[in-house]
Amino acid sequence: MERPVRVRFAPSPTGALHIGGVRTALYNYLFARQHHGVMLLRIEDTDSTRFVPGAEEYILEALDWLGIEIDEGLRMKKGTKEIEAVGSHGPYRQSERREIYHQYVKQLLDSGHAYIAFDTPAELEAKRAEIPNFQYDARTRMQMRNSLTMPAEEVKALIDNGEKYVVRFQVEPNEDVHVHDLIRGEVVINSNILDDKVLYKSADDLPTYHLANIVDDHLMEISHVIRGEEWLPSAPLHVLLYRAFGWSDTMPEFAHLPLLLKPDGNGKLSKRDGDRLGFPVFPLEFHNQKDGTVSSGYRESGYLPEAVINFLALLGWHGTGDQEMYTMGQLIEQFSLDRVSKSGAKFDYEKGKWFNHQYLQLRSNEELTEMFLPVLNEKIAQLDNQSSIVNRQIVNDKAMVAKVIGLTKDRVNFVPELWEQTNFFFVAPTEYDEKSLKKRWKEDSPRHMQELLALLETVSEEDWHKNEQMVNDQMVNTLWHLDKVVMPWIAEHEYGVGIVMNAFRICLVGAARGPHIWAITDVLGKEETLARVRTALKILG
RNA sequence: GGUGCUAUCGUCUAGUGGCCUAGGACAACGGCCUCUCACGCCGUAAACCCCGGUUCGAGUCCGGGUAGCACUACCA
Predict the structure, then answer these.
(1) Distance from residue A290 (CA) to nucleotide B74 (C1'), in Å?
(2) What is the CATH number of the domain that holds A198?
(3) B18 C1' – A334 CA distance, angstroms?
(4) Is A531 part of any domain?
(5) What is the pTM of this model?
(6) How confident is the model at residue A79 (pLDDT cuts 50, 70, 90)?
(7) Closest nucleotide to A121: CA versus each C1'
(8) Are residues A212 and A107 in the same domain?
(9) Which residues of A are catalytic?
Protein backbone atom coordinates (compact mmCIF):
# COMPACT_ATOMS: atom_id res chain seq x y z
CA MET A 1 0.00 0.00 0.00
CA GLU A 2 1.46 3.29 -1.14
CA ARG A 3 1.42 5.83 1.57
CA PRO A 4 -0.32 9.13 0.98
CA VAL A 5 1.87 11.78 -0.58
CA ARG A 6 2.66 14.62 1.78
CA VAL A 7 5.41 17.03 0.80
CA ARG A 8 6.61 20.18 2.41
CA PHE A 9 8.23 23.43 1.49
CA ALA A 10 10.21 24.60 4.49
CA PRO A 11 11.87 27.97 3.99
CA SER A 12 13.73 30.04 6.55
CA PRO A 13 12.49 33.56 7.14
CA THR A 14 15.90 35.09 6.61
CA GLY A 15 14.96 37.45 3.80
CA ALA A 16 13.24 37.41 0.44
CA LEU A 17 12.53 33.99 -1.01
CA HIS A 18 15.20 33.22 -3.57
CA ILE A 19 14.05 32.20 -7.04
CA GLY A 20 15.71 28.81 -6.53
CA GLY A 21 13.55 28.37 -3.46
CA VAL A 22 10.54 29.24 -5.55
CA ARG A 23 11.41 26.47 -7.98
CA THR A 24 11.79 24.01 -5.09
CA ALA A 25 8.36 25.05 -3.86
CA LEU A 26 6.96 24.65 -7.37
CA TYR A 27 8.32 21.14 -7.84
CA ASN A 28 6.97 20.13 -4.44
CA TYR A 29 3.61 21.57 -5.39
CA LEU A 30 3.50 19.86 -8.78
CA PHE A 31 4.41 16.56 -7.19
CA ALA A 32 1.80 16.93 -4.47
CA ARG A 33 -0.98 17.85 -6.88
CA GLN A 34 -0.13 15.10 -9.31
CA HIS A 35 -0.38 12.50 -6.57
CA HIS A 36 -3.45 14.10 -5.04
CA GLY A 37 -1.37 14.65 -1.96
CA VAL A 38 -0.79 17.44 0.48
CA MET A 39 1.48 20.46 0.06
CA LEU A 40 2.59 21.63 3.45
CA LEU A 41 4.41 24.82 4.39
CA ARG A 42 6.54 24.96 7.48
CA ILE A 43 8.71 27.84 8.63
CA GLU A 44 12.20 26.84 9.73
CA ASP A 45 13.14 29.65 12.05
CA THR A 46 15.53 27.85 14.35
CA ASP A 47 18.23 30.45 13.82
CA SER A 48 16.95 33.33 15.89
CA THR A 49 19.88 35.52 14.87
CA ARG A 50 19.03 35.45 11.17
CA PHE A 51 15.34 36.19 11.45
CA VAL A 52 14.19 39.03 9.23
CA PRO A 53 10.85 40.69 9.98
CA GLY A 54 8.37 40.41 7.15
CA ALA A 55 10.13 37.51 5.49
CA GLU A 56 7.43 35.03 6.44
CA GLU A 57 4.68 37.22 5.02
CA TYR A 58 6.79 37.75 1.94
CA ILE A 59 7.23 34.03 1.31
CA LEU A 60 3.53 33.32 1.64
CA GLU A 61 2.55 36.26 -0.53
CA ALA A 62 5.02 35.22 -3.22
CA LEU A 63 3.64 31.69 -3.38
CA ASP A 64 0.13 33.06 -3.42
CA TRP A 65 0.97 35.36 -6.33
CA LEU A 66 2.44 32.47 -8.28
CA GLY A 67 -0.52 30.22 -7.68
CA ILE A 68 1.38 27.69 -5.60
CA GLU A 69 -1.32 26.68 -3.16
CA ILE A 70 -0.66 25.48 0.35
CA ASP A 71 -2.92 22.77 1.74
CA GLU A 72 -1.53 22.54 5.23
CA GLY A 73 0.62 24.63 7.52
CA LEU A 74 1.06 28.34 7.13
CA ARG A 75 -0.57 30.15 4.24
CA MET A 76 -2.14 33.39 3.17
CA LYS A 77 -5.85 33.52 3.84
CA LYS A 78 -7.64 33.68 0.51
CA GLY A 79 -7.97 37.20 -0.78
CA THR A 80 -6.18 38.72 2.18
CA LYS A 81 -2.66 39.19 3.45
CA GLU A 82 -3.46 37.51 6.72
CA ILE A 83 -1.55 34.41 7.70
CA GLU A 84 -3.50 31.38 8.78
CA ALA A 85 -2.41 27.97 10.03
CA VAL A 86 -4.35 24.96 8.84
CA GLY A 87 -3.91 21.31 9.72
CA SER A 88 -3.57 19.07 12.70
CA HIS A 89 0.21 18.66 12.69
CA GLY A 90 1.04 22.11 14.01
CA PRO A 91 2.45 24.35 15.15
CA TYR A 92 4.09 25.00 11.80
CA ARG A 93 6.75 27.40 12.97
CA GLN A 94 9.71 25.59 14.43
CA SER A 95 10.25 28.32 17.00
CA GLU A 96 6.87 27.33 18.42
CA ARG A 97 7.81 23.67 18.72
CA ARG A 98 10.47 23.89 21.44
CA GLU A 99 8.78 21.46 23.83
CA ILE A 100 8.43 18.88 21.09
CA TYR A 101 12.13 19.02 20.29
CA HIS A 102 13.11 18.79 23.98
CA GLN A 103 11.41 15.45 24.14
CA TYR A 104 13.25 14.08 21.13
CA VAL A 105 16.61 15.48 22.17
CA LYS A 106 16.11 13.65 25.46
CA GLN A 107 15.25 10.44 23.61
CA LEU A 108 18.53 10.57 21.72
CA LEU A 109 20.47 11.40 24.86
CA ASP A 110 18.84 8.53 26.75
CA SER A 111 19.42 6.02 24.00
CA GLY A 112 23.08 6.97 23.75
CA HIS A 113 22.83 8.38 20.24
CA ALA A 114 23.74 11.85 21.40
CA TYR A 115 25.79 13.55 24.05
CA ILE A 116 26.21 16.92 25.70
CA ALA A 117 29.20 19.06 24.79
CA PHE A 118 30.49 22.15 26.55
CA ASP A 119 33.14 23.27 24.11
CA THR A 120 32.56 26.94 23.42
CA PRO A 121 32.59 28.39 19.92
CA ALA A 122 35.88 30.07 20.79
CA GLU A 123 37.43 26.80 21.92
CA LEU A 124 36.33 25.08 18.74
CA GLU A 125 37.70 27.86 16.64
CA ALA A 126 41.02 27.58 18.43
CA LYS A 127 41.01 23.86 17.85
CA ARG A 128 40.38 24.35 14.14
CA ALA A 129 43.20 26.85 13.94
CA GLU A 130 45.50 24.48 15.74
CA ILE A 131 44.64 21.29 13.90
CA PRO A 132 44.10 21.47 10.16
CA ASN A 133 40.85 19.86 9.06
CA PHE A 134 39.75 19.39 12.62
CA GLN A 135 36.43 17.66 12.87
CA TYR A 136 34.35 16.87 15.94
CA ASP A 137 33.91 13.12 15.44
CA ALA A 138 34.75 9.65 16.69
CA ARG A 139 38.45 10.35 16.41
CA THR A 140 38.42 13.58 18.41
CA ARG A 141 35.39 13.58 20.66
CA MET A 142 37.20 11.85 23.51
CA GLN A 143 39.59 14.79 23.75
CA MET A 144 36.84 17.35 24.10
CA ARG A 145 34.74 18.67 26.96
CA ASN A 146 31.62 16.59 26.79
CA SER A 147 29.48 14.11 28.64
CA LEU A 148 31.51 11.23 27.20
CA THR A 149 34.71 12.48 28.77
CA MET A 150 33.37 14.05 31.95
CA PRO A 151 31.83 12.43 35.01
CA ALA A 152 28.05 12.60 35.12
CA GLU A 153 28.06 14.75 38.27
CA GLU A 154 30.27 17.34 36.66
CA VAL A 155 28.03 17.50 33.61
CA LYS A 156 25.01 17.97 35.83
CA ALA A 157 26.78 20.60 37.90
CA LEU A 158 27.78 22.55 34.83
CA ILE A 159 24.25 22.50 33.47
CA ASP A 160 22.78 23.47 36.83
CA ASN A 161 25.27 26.27 36.92
CA GLY A 162 23.80 27.67 33.73
CA GLU A 163 26.73 26.70 31.53
CA LYS A 164 25.83 26.84 27.84
CA TYR A 165 26.07 23.55 26.02
CA VAL A 166 25.07 21.81 22.84
CA VAL A 167 23.81 18.33 22.16
CA ARG A 168 25.78 16.48 19.51
CA PHE A 169 24.81 13.45 17.49
CA GLN A 170 27.18 10.57 18.07
CA VAL A 171 28.09 9.25 14.63
CA GLU A 172 29.42 5.71 14.64
CA PRO A 173 32.54 5.42 12.47
CA ASN A 174 33.33 3.10 9.56
CA GLU A 175 29.91 2.62 8.17
CA ASP A 176 28.74 3.08 4.60
CA VAL A 177 25.54 5.04 4.78
CA HIS A 178 23.21 4.58 1.83
CA VAL A 179 20.90 7.33 0.70
CA HIS A 180 18.36 6.51 -1.95
CA ASP A 181 17.70 9.54 -4.08
CA LEU A 182 14.83 9.63 -6.56
CA ILE A 183 16.84 11.75 -8.97
CA ARG A 184 20.37 10.50 -8.45
CA GLY A 185 19.92 6.90 -7.44
CA GLU A 186 21.98 5.36 -4.67
CA VAL A 187 24.47 7.67 -2.96
CA VAL A 188 26.91 6.11 -0.52
CA ILE A 189 28.95 8.03 2.02
CA ASN A 190 31.18 6.63 4.72
CA SER A 191 30.27 7.79 8.19
CA ASN A 192 33.93 8.61 8.89
CA ILE A 193 33.61 11.85 6.98
CA LEU A 194 30.54 12.90 8.97
CA ASP A 195 31.05 14.99 12.07
CA ASP A 196 29.11 14.86 15.31
CA LYS A 197 26.60 17.48 14.25
CA VAL A 198 25.13 19.85 16.75
CA LEU A 199 21.46 18.99 17.17
CA TYR A 200 20.48 21.40 19.89
CA LYS A 201 21.89 24.61 21.30
CA SER A 202 21.07 25.65 24.82
CA ALA A 203 21.97 29.27 24.09
CA ASP A 204 18.64 29.89 22.39
CA ASP A 205 16.92 26.70 23.47
CA LEU A 206 16.36 25.60 19.89
CA PRO A 207 17.43 22.65 17.79
CA THR A 208 19.49 23.06 14.65
CA TYR A 209 18.09 22.40 11.22
CA HIS A 210 19.03 18.74 11.18
CA LEU A 211 17.17 17.72 14.29
CA ALA A 212 14.15 19.94 13.76
CA ASN A 213 13.87 18.84 10.18
CA ILE A 214 13.85 15.13 10.92
CA VAL A 215 11.51 15.41 13.87
CA ASP A 216 9.07 17.59 11.98
CA ASP A 217 9.12 15.58 8.80
CA HIS A 218 8.40 12.50 10.86
CA LEU A 219 5.66 14.05 12.96
CA MET A 220 4.11 15.73 9.96
CA GLU A 221 4.15 12.42 8.11
CA ILE A 222 6.11 13.73 5.16
CA SER A 223 6.41 11.10 2.44
CA HIS A 224 8.86 12.83 0.08
CA VAL A 225 11.55 15.35 0.80
CA ILE A 226 12.17 17.37 -2.34
CA ARG A 227 14.86 19.95 -1.74
CA GLY A 228 17.96 21.58 -3.21
CA GLU A 229 21.14 19.70 -3.97
CA GLU A 230 23.00 21.62 -1.29
CA TRP A 231 21.38 19.21 1.15
CA LEU A 232 22.72 16.08 -0.45
CA PRO A 233 25.91 15.99 1.64
CA SER A 234 23.90 16.03 4.85
CA ALA A 235 21.38 13.45 3.69
CA PRO A 236 23.40 10.56 5.20
CA LEU A 237 23.26 12.30 8.56
CA HIS A 238 19.51 12.51 8.18
CA VAL A 239 19.29 8.82 7.36
CA LEU A 240 21.30 8.10 10.50
CA LEU A 241 18.99 10.30 12.55
CA TYR A 242 15.89 8.50 11.31
CA ARG A 243 17.53 5.26 12.32
CA ALA A 244 18.56 6.55 15.75
CA PHE A 245 14.96 7.51 16.38
CA GLY A 246 13.73 4.15 15.17
CA TRP A 247 11.85 5.71 12.26
CA SER A 248 13.62 4.06 9.35
CA ASP A 249 10.41 2.34 8.24
CA THR A 250 8.64 5.62 7.62
CA MET A 251 11.60 7.62 6.48
CA PRO A 252 10.58 9.83 3.54
CA GLU A 253 11.95 9.36 0.05
CA PHE A 254 14.57 11.93 -0.95
CA ALA A 255 14.90 13.92 -4.14
CA HIS A 256 17.71 16.45 -4.42
CA LEU A 257 17.12 19.07 -7.08
CA PRO A 258 19.91 20.52 -9.24
CA LEU A 259 20.99 24.03 -8.39
CA LEU A 260 20.21 27.23 -10.25
CA LEU A 261 23.50 28.68 -11.48
CA LYS A 262 24.75 32.12 -12.48
CA PRO A 263 23.92 33.05 -16.12
CA ASP A 264 27.56 33.81 -16.76
CA GLY A 265 30.55 32.14 -15.23
CA ASN A 266 30.11 29.50 -12.60
CA GLY A 267 28.52 29.13 -9.23
CA LYS A 268 25.22 29.35 -7.51
CA LEU A 269 22.83 32.10 -8.57
CA SER A 270 22.92 34.88 -6.01
CA LYS A 271 21.22 38.19 -5.33
CA ARG A 272 24.40 39.92 -6.48
CA ASP A 273 24.11 38.35 -9.93
CA GLY A 274 20.69 39.88 -10.36
CA ASP A 275 21.94 43.32 -9.39
CA ARG A 276 24.99 42.94 -11.61
CA LEU A 277 23.16 41.64 -14.68
CA GLY A 278 19.97 43.58 -14.18
CA PHE A 279 17.26 41.06 -13.47
CA PRO A 280 15.35 40.09 -10.35
CA VAL A 281 16.20 36.96 -8.39
CA PHE A 282 13.17 37.30 -6.15
CA PRO A 283 9.51 36.84 -6.98
CA LEU A 284 8.34 40.03 -5.29
CA GLU A 285 10.03 43.27 -4.43
CA PHE A 286 11.39 43.07 -0.90
CA HIS A 287 12.24 45.81 1.55
CA ASN A 288 14.57 44.28 4.08
CA GLN A 289 13.85 45.93 7.40
CA LYS A 290 16.98 44.49 8.90
CA ASP A 291 19.62 45.83 6.55
CA GLY A 292 17.54 48.44 4.73
CA THR A 293 18.15 46.97 1.28
CA VAL A 294 15.52 46.79 -1.44
CA SER A 295 15.49 43.84 -3.82
CA SER A 296 13.60 43.96 -7.10
CA GLY A 297 10.96 41.37 -7.84
CA TYR A 298 9.51 39.63 -10.87
CA ARG A 299 6.04 40.89 -10.12
CA GLU A 300 7.11 44.53 -9.97
CA SER A 301 9.21 44.13 -13.10
CA GLY A 302 6.08 43.30 -15.05
CA TYR A 303 6.26 39.53 -15.09
CA LEU A 304 3.13 37.47 -15.29
CA PRO A 305 2.99 34.68 -12.70
CA GLU A 306 2.24 32.03 -15.30
CA ALA A 307 5.36 33.05 -17.22
CA VAL A 308 7.53 32.78 -14.13
CA ILE A 309 6.07 29.38 -13.37
CA ASN A 310 6.59 28.07 -16.90
CA PHE A 311 10.12 29.44 -17.06
CA LEU A 312 11.07 28.02 -13.68
CA ALA A 313 9.48 24.67 -14.35
CA LEU A 314 11.70 24.19 -17.41
CA LEU A 315 14.87 25.12 -15.55
CA GLY A 316 15.72 21.62 -14.44
CA TRP A 317 12.78 19.68 -15.76
CA HIS A 318 11.65 18.81 -19.26
CA GLY A 319 8.72 16.85 -20.60
CA THR A 320 8.97 14.05 -23.11
CA GLY A 321 8.34 16.12 -26.23
CA ASP A 322 9.28 19.52 -27.60
CA GLN A 323 6.59 21.39 -25.72
CA GLU A 324 7.74 24.70 -24.23
CA MET A 325 4.52 26.29 -23.08
CA TYR A 326 2.91 24.66 -20.08
CA THR A 327 -0.02 25.75 -18.00
CA MET A 328 0.10 24.90 -14.32
CA GLY A 329 -2.46 22.19 -15.01
CA GLN A 330 -0.31 20.61 -17.69
CA LEU A 331 2.71 20.75 -15.43
CA ILE A 332 0.81 18.98 -12.70
CA GLU A 333 -0.22 16.33 -15.17
CA GLN A 334 3.16 15.79 -16.78
CA PHE A 335 5.69 16.54 -14.06
CA SER A 336 7.81 13.68 -12.83
CA LEU A 337 10.89 13.53 -10.68
CA ASP A 338 12.68 11.12 -12.97
CA ARG A 339 12.64 13.73 -15.70
CA VAL A 340 14.38 16.27 -13.49
CA SER A 341 17.93 17.00 -14.68
CA LYS A 342 20.87 15.99 -12.56
CA SER A 343 23.08 18.90 -13.48
CA GLY A 344 22.72 22.52 -12.44
CA ALA A 345 20.97 24.95 -14.76
CA LYS A 346 22.38 28.33 -15.63
CA PHE A 347 19.74 30.94 -15.15
CA ASP A 348 18.73 31.97 -18.68
CA TYR A 349 17.08 35.31 -18.13
CA GLU A 350 16.55 35.94 -21.85
CA LYS A 351 14.32 32.95 -22.08
CA GLY A 352 12.34 34.23 -19.15
CA LYS A 353 11.62 37.36 -21.15
CA TRP A 354 10.46 35.28 -24.07
CA PHE A 355 8.06 33.36 -21.86
CA ASN A 356 6.64 36.61 -20.57
CA HIS A 357 6.16 37.82 -24.12
CA GLN A 358 4.24 34.67 -24.96
CA TYR A 359 1.97 34.90 -21.96
CA LEU A 360 1.43 38.59 -22.44
CA GLN A 361 -0.02 37.90 -25.90
CA LEU A 362 -2.41 35.42 -24.32
CA ARG A 363 -3.89 38.03 -21.99
CA SER A 364 -6.89 40.02 -23.20
CA ASN A 365 -6.53 43.70 -24.01
CA GLU A 366 -8.85 44.47 -21.14
CA GLU A 367 -6.73 42.59 -18.62
CA LEU A 368 -3.60 44.28 -19.91
CA THR A 369 -5.35 47.63 -19.68
CA GLU A 370 -5.97 47.14 -15.98
CA MET A 371 -2.32 46.29 -15.51
CA PHE A 372 -1.11 49.16 -17.66
CA LEU A 373 -3.32 51.91 -16.26
CA PRO A 374 -1.18 52.59 -13.16
CA VAL A 375 1.89 52.94 -15.37
CA LEU A 376 0.03 55.16 -17.81
CA ASN A 377 -1.37 57.43 -15.12
CA GLU A 378 2.02 57.84 -13.55
CA LYS A 379 3.64 58.75 -16.84
CA ILE A 380 0.87 61.19 -17.67
CA ALA A 381 1.15 62.77 -14.22
CA GLN A 382 4.82 63.37 -14.90
CA LEU A 383 3.85 65.28 -18.03
CA ASP A 384 1.05 67.20 -16.45
CA ASN A 385 2.86 70.52 -16.35
CA GLN A 386 2.59 70.51 -20.15
CA SER A 387 -0.98 69.27 -20.05
CA SER A 388 -1.93 70.88 -23.35
CA ILE A 389 -0.27 68.09 -25.30
CA VAL A 390 -1.92 65.21 -23.45
CA ASN A 391 -4.82 63.71 -25.30
CA ARG A 392 -7.28 63.23 -22.44
CA GLN A 393 -9.89 61.74 -24.68
CA ILE A 394 -7.76 58.67 -25.23
CA VAL A 395 -6.03 58.53 -21.85
CA ASN A 396 -9.30 58.60 -19.94
CA ASP A 397 -11.11 56.10 -22.15
CA LYS A 398 -10.43 52.52 -21.07
CA ALA A 399 -11.78 51.13 -24.30
CA MET A 400 -9.40 53.33 -26.25
CA VAL A 401 -6.48 52.30 -24.07
CA ALA A 402 -7.41 48.68 -24.66
CA LYS A 403 -7.53 49.30 -28.38
CA VAL A 404 -4.11 50.91 -28.31
CA ILE A 405 -2.73 48.00 -26.34
CA GLY A 406 -4.20 45.60 -28.87
CA LEU A 407 -2.23 47.37 -31.57
CA THR A 408 1.08 47.31 -29.72
CA LYS A 409 1.22 44.41 -27.31
CA ASP A 410 2.91 42.05 -29.74
CA ARG A 411 6.01 44.20 -29.62
CA VAL A 412 6.60 44.19 -25.86
CA ASN A 413 7.80 41.66 -23.32
CA PHE A 414 6.48 43.48 -20.27
CA VAL A 415 3.48 45.59 -19.42
CA PRO A 416 5.51 48.68 -18.46
CA GLU A 417 7.17 48.61 -21.89
CA LEU A 418 3.76 49.37 -23.35
CA TRP A 419 4.38 53.02 -22.54
CA GLU A 420 7.27 53.31 -25.00
CA GLN A 421 5.11 51.73 -27.68
CA THR A 422 1.97 53.71 -27.05
CA ASN A 423 2.99 57.11 -25.71
CA PHE A 424 2.39 58.93 -29.01
CA PHE A 425 -1.27 57.95 -28.88
CA PHE A 426 -1.64 59.78 -25.60
CA VAL A 427 0.74 62.65 -26.15
CA ALA A 428 1.16 64.48 -29.46
CA PRO A 429 4.76 64.69 -30.62
CA THR A 430 6.47 68.04 -30.38
CA GLU A 431 9.89 66.72 -31.21
CA TYR A 432 10.78 64.49 -34.10
CA ASP A 433 13.28 61.67 -34.11
CA GLU A 434 16.40 62.86 -35.88
CA LYS A 435 17.28 59.57 -37.51
CA SER A 436 13.77 59.14 -38.85
CA LEU A 437 13.75 62.65 -40.23
CA LYS A 438 17.04 62.19 -41.96
CA LYS A 439 15.86 59.04 -43.63
CA ARG A 440 12.17 59.76 -44.19
CA TRP A 441 11.51 63.50 -44.27
CA LYS A 442 12.36 64.61 -47.79
CA GLU A 443 12.45 67.91 -49.58
CA ASP A 444 8.99 67.29 -51.01
CA SER A 445 7.50 66.16 -47.72
CA PRO A 446 6.04 69.53 -46.64
CA ARG A 447 4.27 69.85 -49.97
CA HIS A 448 3.06 66.24 -49.79
CA MET A 449 1.70 66.86 -46.32
CA GLN A 450 -0.05 70.05 -47.41
CA GLU A 451 -1.78 68.15 -50.18
CA LEU A 452 -2.56 65.21 -47.94
CA LEU A 453 -4.05 67.60 -45.42
CA ALA A 454 -6.37 69.02 -48.03
CA LEU A 455 -7.31 65.55 -49.19
CA LEU A 456 -8.05 64.27 -45.67
CA GLU A 457 -10.16 67.36 -44.93
CA THR A 458 -12.64 66.04 -47.46
CA VAL A 459 -13.15 62.73 -45.64
CA SER A 460 -16.26 62.65 -43.50
CA GLU A 461 -16.02 61.86 -39.81
CA GLU A 462 -17.95 58.66 -40.47
CA ASP A 463 -15.76 57.47 -43.33
CA TRP A 464 -12.64 58.25 -41.35
CA HIS A 465 -13.01 55.16 -39.18
CA LYS A 466 -14.58 52.91 -41.78
CA ASN A 467 -12.87 49.62 -42.55
CA GLU A 468 -13.67 46.08 -43.56
CA GLN A 469 -12.08 42.83 -42.54
CA MET A 470 -10.91 40.61 -45.36
CA VAL A 471 -10.15 37.00 -44.69
CA ASN A 472 -7.92 35.17 -47.11
CA ASP A 473 -5.41 32.41 -46.55
CA GLN A 474 -6.50 32.36 -42.92
CA MET A 475 -5.05 35.85 -42.59
CA VAL A 476 -7.25 38.71 -41.52
CA ASN A 477 -6.53 41.89 -43.44
CA THR A 478 -8.10 45.17 -42.58
CA LEU A 479 -9.01 47.34 -45.55
CA TRP A 480 -9.36 50.93 -44.51
CA HIS A 481 -11.47 53.51 -46.23
CA LEU A 482 -8.63 56.01 -45.86
CA ASP A 483 -6.40 53.66 -47.78
CA LYS A 484 -8.84 53.84 -50.67
CA VAL A 485 -8.75 57.61 -50.50
CA VAL A 486 -5.02 58.13 -50.19
CA MET A 487 -3.54 55.45 -52.42
CA PRO A 488 -5.19 56.61 -55.66
CA TRP A 489 -4.02 60.15 -54.93
CA ILE A 490 -0.44 58.92 -54.50
CA ALA A 491 -0.69 56.89 -57.66
CA GLU A 492 -2.18 59.76 -59.62
CA HIS A 493 0.69 62.08 -58.75
CA GLU A 494 3.23 59.27 -59.03
CA TYR A 495 4.51 59.92 -55.54
CA GLY A 496 6.44 57.25 -53.71
CA VAL A 497 4.15 55.43 -51.30
CA GLY A 498 6.98 55.02 -48.82
CA ILE A 499 7.97 58.65 -49.03
CA VAL A 500 4.49 60.00 -48.40
CA MET A 501 3.44 57.50 -45.79
CA ASN A 502 6.60 57.78 -43.77
CA ALA A 503 6.44 61.53 -43.71
CA PHE A 504 2.83 61.22 -42.58
CA ARG A 505 3.91 58.74 -39.92
CA ILE A 506 6.52 61.12 -38.61
CA CYS A 507 3.87 63.80 -38.24
CA LEU A 508 1.66 61.51 -36.18
CA VAL A 509 4.18 59.46 -34.22
CA GLY A 510 7.25 61.64 -34.13
CA ALA A 511 9.37 58.84 -35.53
CA ALA A 512 9.36 56.15 -38.19
CA ARG A 513 7.92 53.41 -36.04
CA GLY A 514 4.64 52.11 -34.70
CA PRO A 515 1.60 50.14 -35.86
CA HIS A 516 -0.17 50.37 -39.18
CA ILE A 517 -0.76 53.97 -40.14
CA TRP A 518 -4.55 53.68 -40.59
CA ALA A 519 -4.85 52.00 -37.24
CA ILE A 520 -3.18 55.06 -35.78
CA THR A 521 -5.41 57.55 -37.59
CA ASP A 522 -8.39 55.50 -36.49
CA VAL A 523 -7.46 55.90 -32.83
CA LEU A 524 -6.45 59.54 -33.10
CA GLY A 525 -9.52 60.59 -35.04
CA LYS A 526 -9.77 63.10 -37.83
CA GLU A 527 -9.35 66.24 -35.83
CA GLU A 528 -6.28 65.11 -33.89
CA THR A 529 -4.65 63.62 -36.97
CA LEU A 530 -5.00 66.81 -38.98
CA ALA A 531 -3.84 68.89 -36.03
CA ARG A 532 -0.68 66.81 -35.77
CA VAL A 533 0.08 67.24 -39.44
CA ARG A 534 -0.34 71.00 -39.11
CA THR A 535 1.91 71.08 -36.08
CA ALA A 536 4.57 69.09 -37.89
CA LEU A 537 4.38 71.41 -40.89
CA LYS A 538 4.82 74.37 -38.59
CA ILE A 539 7.85 72.87 -36.90
CA LEU A 540 9.47 71.06 -39.78
CA GLY A 541 8.47 73.49 -42.47
C1' G B 1 42.59 19.74 1.55
C1' G B 2 38.46 16.00 2.27
C1' U B 3 33.68 13.99 0.64
C1' G B 4 29.82 13.93 -2.71
C1' C B 5 27.28 15.31 -7.15
C1' U B 6 27.53 16.53 -12.29
C1' A B 7 29.34 16.72 -17.58
C1' U B 8 25.17 17.08 -25.39
C1' C B 9 25.01 23.68 -29.52
C1' G B 10 26.69 30.38 -26.10
C1' U B 11 22.08 28.99 -22.76
C1' C B 12 17.74 25.55 -21.27
C1' U B 13 17.40 20.75 -22.96
C1' A B 14 15.66 15.87 -26.16
C1' G B 15 18.35 11.39 -26.32
C1' U B 16 17.71 5.07 -21.64
C1' G B 17 23.04 0.61 -27.43
C1' G B 18 21.29 0.64 -34.00
C1' C B 19 15.43 5.25 -35.41
C1' C B 20 21.58 10.42 -34.50
C1' U B 21 23.68 12.77 -40.99
C1' A B 22 22.38 14.29 -32.75
C1' G B 23 16.01 16.90 -32.36
C1' G B 24 13.40 21.34 -30.07
C1' A B 25 13.47 26.24 -27.63
C1' C B 26 16.04 31.03 -26.21
C1' A B 27 19.81 34.13 -27.98
C1' A B 28 22.74 35.25 -32.72
C1' C B 29 22.75 35.79 -38.02
C1' G B 30 20.17 35.94 -42.95
C1' G B 31 15.63 36.18 -45.78
C1' C B 32 10.28 36.96 -46.45
C1' C B 33 6.16 40.14 -45.11
C1' U B 34 5.83 45.69 -45.24
C1' C B 35 4.56 52.95 -45.42
C1' U B 36 8.08 52.45 -40.53
C1' C B 37 9.62 49.91 -36.20
C1' A B 38 8.26 45.55 -34.26
C1' C B 39 5.58 40.89 -34.26
C1' G B 40 5.14 36.68 -37.19
C1' C B 41 6.94 33.16 -40.77
C1' C B 42 11.08 30.69 -43.28
C1' G B 43 16.13 29.55 -43.18
C1' U B 44 21.65 29.48 -41.55
C1' A B 45 25.43 28.73 -38.13
C1' A B 46 26.15 26.18 -33.57
C1' A B 47 27.25 20.60 -29.22
C1' C B 48 28.06 14.65 -27.56
C1' C B 49 34.89 17.12 -21.99
C1' C B 50 39.35 13.70 -22.85
C1' C B 51 41.50 8.68 -22.97
C1' G B 52 40.72 3.67 -22.72
C1' G B 53 37.37 -0.65 -22.49
C1' U B 54 32.74 -3.70 -23.51
C1' U B 55 30.01 -4.54 -28.19
C1' C B 56 29.03 -6.28 -34.91
C1' G B 57 27.67 -1.20 -33.32
C1' A B 58 28.37 3.97 -27.91
C1' G B 59 26.15 10.57 -27.05
C1' U B 60 23.86 6.26 -24.64
C1' C B 61 27.13 0.88 -20.70
C1' C B 62 32.01 0.33 -17.72
C1' G B 63 36.90 2.24 -15.94
C1' G B 64 40.35 6.17 -15.51
C1' G B 65 41.43 11.18 -16.12
C1' U B 66 39.92 16.34 -16.43
C1' A B 67 36.71 20.24 -15.32
C1' G B 68 32.61 22.56 -12.83
C1' C B 69 29.60 22.79 -8.69
C1' A B 70 27.92 21.72 -3.69
C1' C B 71 29.04 20.56 1.24
C1' U B 72 32.75 20.64 4.88
C1' A B 73 29.22 26.27 11.33
C1' C B 74 26.29 26.19 18.13
C1' C B 75 23.21 28.86 9.20
C1' A B 76 19.48 26.86 6.83
Answers:
(1) 23
(2) 3.90.800.10
(3) 29
(4) yes
(5) 0.93
(6) confident
(7) B74
(8) yes
(9) 271
